[in-house]
Amino acid sequence: MTEFTKRKLSDDPYEACAVFDVNNDGISDIVSGAYWYEGPDYALRHPICDVEAIGEYHDDFSDYPMDVDGDGWMDLITGSWFTETLRWRRNPGRKDEEWETIDIDRCGNIETIRFYDIDGCGVPEIFPNTPNEPQAFYKLLRDAEGKGTGEFLKVVIGEAPSGHGMGFVDINGDGRMDIVLSHGWLEQPEDPYQTPWMFHAEWSLGSASVPVLGHDVNGDGLIDLIVGQAHDYGLHWYEQRQSEEGTRSWIRHTIDDSASQFHDLWLVDLDLDGELELVTGKRYRAHNDGDPGAHDPIGLYYYRVNGGRFDKFVIDYGPAGEASGTGIYFWVQDLTGNGYPDIVAPGKDGLYLFENNGPAKE
């Protein structure tokens, strides 16, 4: 079992975070909401800008580092459901200066955002999950020296509303990353800018997590899906099967039905044994008090895949204020330098750091 040391960094109820070197000192920092926390001890925090409170949410449903304007300082990509706008915050390079927030596109309600280098350019493209709009991605335009220009190209790859849930999975094994949505998948063509991508309606995943993960769970050579229910009970994997004629079908298996609001998922090797673990937990009050299980205790967990058995281990569990969930966008990265990936968990329950101490000594 992997052991963690838990630290609460803040009571602020922001639901997204990221880890990157904010001040170019060579040390990773933590960013969440209106503040960044200076590494290596994360005790000192600095303001970024005001982040609007909207009801019991904040206008920040994703945080991701990207040098948008090519000035050598990592900026921040964000967006939210309520303002329907994809944005970036410009890192001024000085601790005492507010970060300017700049609109990229009014693209519709953003559930959250994920990032993938779909064209192999070396810089990830931006994929907002916009349930009420067709799937699109945004490419940062760069100059002749490869530096960001602050401008983006929007590419609409879907035709129908995307639905809740999104992931990057090579479904058909052709070496090109496809886009998984709640009711099917968009097949990437040889040229990702050739639109629309062909849609295959092969499943109904419900209020699916962002991301939906692809992984060969049972070792049969076929990619399977790992899906959390973001606004209901349940964590599942969908086994891919193929007939002799090559027709795909999917069988749903339960991983864990004891908790609800599995909104964000990671696959990461926590104990450095060469095998990936599934890391996830409850997003506390995802729809405030409107989801099934909203008032249940919250928790953070990892699961050993174990060929589809998914052995569960509890990292944290208990009432909000004492325990942590995962928020809508948590982060996994080694912050202590011991080689083991740590977990940064934001949410309406506060911002927590779980330092990974490695496998427990027997």
TrEMBL record:
Lineage top rank: taxon: Bacteria
Coiled coil ranges: none
Listed InterPro entries: FG-GAP, Integrin_alpha_N
Keywords associated with the record: Signal
PANTHER family per the UniProt record, alphabetical: PROPROTEIN CONVERTASE P (PTHR44103:SF1)
Protein name per its UniProtKB record: VCBS repeat-containing protein
Species annotation: Paenibacillus glycanilyticus
Organism taxonomic ancestry: Bacteria, Bacillati, Bacillota, Bacilli, Bacillales
